[in-house]
Here is the input.
Amino acid sequence: MKKLLIIAVLALTCCEHSSGQKLPSYNADALMKRVSNKDTTYIINFWATWCMPCVAELPGFDTLQLRYHGKPVKVLLVSFDFKEAYPKKILEFIKKKKVVPEVLWFSETNANEFIPKIEQQWSGSLPATLVLGHNNFRWFHEGTVNAAEITTVVDKQLSY
Here is the structure.
C-alpha cells in the first residue's frame, strides 16, 4: 500500500510538471503591485491568443526572456483572453507555442477602471507593451513591437 501511494504521488508530480506553467489570475491592482519592485525592470506585454499581431510577436518576448536571463529583468505576458478560455485553452496555447516567459491572465473587463491603473496613454487595444524600471522609468508602446526595439529601451534603462 505504501509503495502504491509513493507511485501515485510521483505520477501526480510528474504530470504537474509536464503540464507547463500555472496561469495565475490578476486584476490591475495586483498586477501593478507585482511589478512595483524597483530593483527589477519589467517588460509587460498585453496580448491574447485570438489577436494575430499579438501571437506574431510572442517569439520576440521569448528572445527577451533568454537575453536577460540572470539579469534584473522580468518578462510578463498578460493574457486578455476571454473568461471561457481561462485557464485550459490559454495553457494549451502556451504549451503548443512553447512560450518561454511567465504568463498571467487578466481578470478585469471594465477598461474604464483598469486602464488608468496601468497606463493613461493606452486606448485598450492589443498588443501593447509596457516597460517599467528604475527611477520611475516608464515606456509604453501600443501596437506591435519587436525584440530589438525593446532591447534598446531596456539596455538604456539598465545602464543607469
Notes: Residues 2-18 form the longest helix (17 residues). Strands lie at 25-26, 41-47, 73-79, 102-106, 128-133, 137-142. The helical segments are 2-18, 28-34, 52-67, 88-97, 111-118, 147-158.
